[in-house]
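Final report, section 2: Outcomes. Of the targets proposed, cytochrome-b5 reductase is the one most frequently requested by collaborating groups, and we therefore present its record in full.
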Amino acid sequence: MFRSVFSKGGVIAALAGGTAIYWGVNRGEAPAAKPVTAALTPPPVALSADEWRSFKLVHKEALTKGVPSPTVLFRFALPDKTMEAGLPVASCVLVRAPIGSSKPDGSNAFVIRPYTPISGNHAKGHMDLAIKVYPDGKMSQHVDKLKVGDSLDFKGPIMKISLDDLSKKARLGLICGGSGLTPMIQVVEELYHQNKSIEVSMIYANVSEKDIIAKERLDALAKQNVTFDIHYAVDKSDSKDFEGSVGYINRDLLAKQMPPPASDSLILVCGPPGMMKSISGDKLPDKSQGPLSGLLKDMGYTEQQVFKF
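The predicted structure is given below as tokens.
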């Protein structure tokens, strides 16, 4: 979920029209252009959909404190500082670790979990995961115990919904809870990175204000882009200064914040099982979309107008 803001010998290299041109400077004479016929190739990416690749942890930071299940930022270094992860929007990666049951040969079975990086596809040299660490979460507990310098296996990306499909819509409604923010922040940042003129409204729900992550990042996006609106919701709040809704997401809040049912609108939903059941119905065990139910169906949305992460 965090995007980071991170000629020698008289020869200057320039790229023009998809062809590499080398300008040679010779004794004060006018530069002569010499085309290179070799086709340009895309820069290498770190991830592979066909094999597991190991990346080292280089930084970890608690994003929330004083909550039962804190969210922690884990930064993994890519093989080269100029390399990108290779994460089209919106996609996730698989993570594996030998922390499963014991096998006859004495080794442990691999446990595999999907996570959505928050560093975006344009971050170079690293990939960030924001993981909610649950007391009984086998993988989240394992990752949280990693020390700087330890490695973790990755595979992917796994495409969820393409930016091309999202760009065909005039209005997007994003409903997310907790770490369900991760694919949503991918979507919002890439849309505005590519200057897409799409109206985007987000409801970001959490148990408490302490559970909210990336607030400064989201508020900055809303300030910089007049077509992006963010609304915060918490189950409970002891603060009189909280700017948002208190209580579970209900029909009135959805009607106020989300675009109405229409062929040029799409609602994206991502959150914990209870929230998914209430708002849209969860995905099926095989990870297909499954039937639409919950508040969105009651409000007249169709299955073609809702996408579940």
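The two ends are 14 Å apart (CA to CA).
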